[in-house]
Amino acid sequence: MKPIEKPLNIFEKMSFFIILNFSKFLMFCFVGGTSALIHLTLFNFFRFWVGLGFLISLVLAILISIVYNFSMNRNITFSARGHSIKKQLPRYLIIYGLSIGTNIITALIINSILGAGAVQENMAAIGGIILSIPISFLGSLLWAFKKH
What we know:
Elements: H1 10-20, H2 22-50, H3 54-77, H4 85-114, H5 118-144
Helix pairs in contact: 2-3, 2-5, 3-4, 4-5
C-alpha cells in the first residue's frame, strides 16, 4: 500500500517557493536593503535638514528610492532587461503603488501611535518598509519581471 500524501500547507509551499528562488530573494534583499538606506537617508535629509513635513519627506524619499529599485531589480535581480520595458514598467508601478500605499499607511499609523521625534518617525518609516517587502518581492517575481 502506498502511503497517502497530504497536500502541502501554505507555509510548506512558501518554503519551497523561497528555496527555488533563493538567489533572487537574496539579491532582492540586497537591492531592497540598499534602497531602504537610500530611502531613510533621503527621508532624514528632507525631514530634518531641509525641514519638510513628515509625509512630504516620506513620499519624496520613496519616489527617489523607487527609481533605483526598479533599475537594480530589472537589470540584476530578475535579469529582465531583455524583455519589454513597456510591459514591465506599468506592472512595476502597480506593484509598487500597492507597496508604497502599504508603506505610507503603515508609517502613518505607527507615527500616530508613537508620536513626533526623530527616533519615532524613523521607526514609523522602517515599519512601513518592512510590511511592504513581501508585496514588492512577490509582485516583481510573479508579475512585473516574470519571464514569459
